[in-house]
Every structure is written in C-alpha cells, then in structure tokens.
Amino acid sequence: MEKVILKNEQTRWNPFHLLHRLYEWVLHWAETPYGIPALFILAFAESSFFPIPPDVLLIALAISIPARAFRYAFICSIGSVLGGMFGYVIGWQFYELIGKPIVEFYQGQAKFHEVELLYQQYGTWAVFIAGFTPIPYKIFTIASGVFQLQFVKFVLASVVSRSARFFLVSTFIWFFGPTIKGFIDKYFNLLVVLFTIALVGGFVVVKYLW
C-alpha cells in the first residue's frame, strides 16, 4: 500500500507528468465558450513566463472552426507581441526580482550569455529567429530588456516573427483541415526551423542582389 502511495506521489510531482497535465488543461479551453480569451491570455503569458506554447490551443480552435483560423492567428499574434513587450519590461526594470527567477526556472542561465552574443552579432535578427522558432521566446524577451535592445526594433521583429509563426499554423489548418493536425504535432519544430531558414535566406539573397 505504501509503495502505491509513493508511486502516486512520484507521478504527481514528476515534471513531465505535470507538464502533460498543464498541456491538457490548456487544450480543454478549446471546448469551452472562453477559447478566444484563453488563447489571448495564453499567448501573452507564454511570451514572458508560461511554459506551454499557444500553438496548442490555436491548432485546436482552428480545427474546430477552420473558417476562423486566421482570426485566431491574429488574436494569438496580438497577445504574444504584448506579452513579449511585458517580458521586455521585466528584463529592463525587474530582472533581479522577476526576470532572473523565470530564467532560472527554465534553466536558461547558460543561454543568457549566448543570447548576448547573438544580440551583438545579429541584433534584431536574434529576436526574429527566437520569435518564430521553438527557441524559448520568453528568454529572448527578458534578455532584450536586460541588454536594452532598441524597443521599436524589438516590437517590429516580434510582430513579424510571431505573426509568421501563428499564421503559418492557421494556413495549414485552413487548407488541410483536421487531417493536418497529426502532421503538425509531429513535425512542427522541423517545419518552423525550415521555414525560418528559407525566410532568412531570402532576405540575405535580396540584400546581396539589390
């Protein structure tokens, strides 16, 4: 009996189990009348501290009503950019009090120096890549404030990258419907990385050709 209780306690406090429970909790909002507000709040929170990406709820809502897929992407983009601005303020004014504990929670201390080097080398491109790819965007939003990246450039990069990410998801849903869900779930990270490489490559080609 004691072994069963101990096993249940270990399962309850297993980080992967907790993350899965959190994932299911996010997903359940798609089945409620509060799906759209939840999507906005989730997108806002994920840009500064929350672990579950809004793509989870975005996909569920878009599949439920494919005709509204781009509307959901727009709401998700607005929430994410505003959340990124909040993350910037945390890094700029409240890093020791709020930002540092968040970074430590996600074990991102080692990445902070790498982020600083990326800013020194690529500036706004670092935010763009982080905003679109699976790289933890919250680390970059907080770091942008800490390293005082120009705020207007930060916002513009966030708008382009986050909108591109979420509208890409909605485009897949709009064209292919529910049948694409399994494919997106399985290959989402690879898709966004490939798309980012292609997009950045396109900018580089334009730069050198023109």
From TrEMBL:
Could you confirm whether the keyword Transmembrane appears in this record? Answer: yes
Give UniProt keywords alphabetically.
Membrane, Transmembrane, Transmembrane helix
TM ranges are: 72-95, 125-147, 154-175, 187-209
Q: Which InterPro entries does this one have?
A: DedA_domain, VTT_dom
Cellular component GO terms held in the UniProt record: plasma membrane
Q: Which residues form the VTT domain?
A: 52-173
Q: PANTHER family, per this entry? A: ALKALINE PHOSPHATASE LIKE PROTEIN (PTHR42709), DEDA FAMILY PROTEIN (PTHR42709:SF11)
User: What name appears for this protein in its UniProt entry?
Assistant: SNARE associated Golgi protein
Origin organism is: Vecturithrix granuli
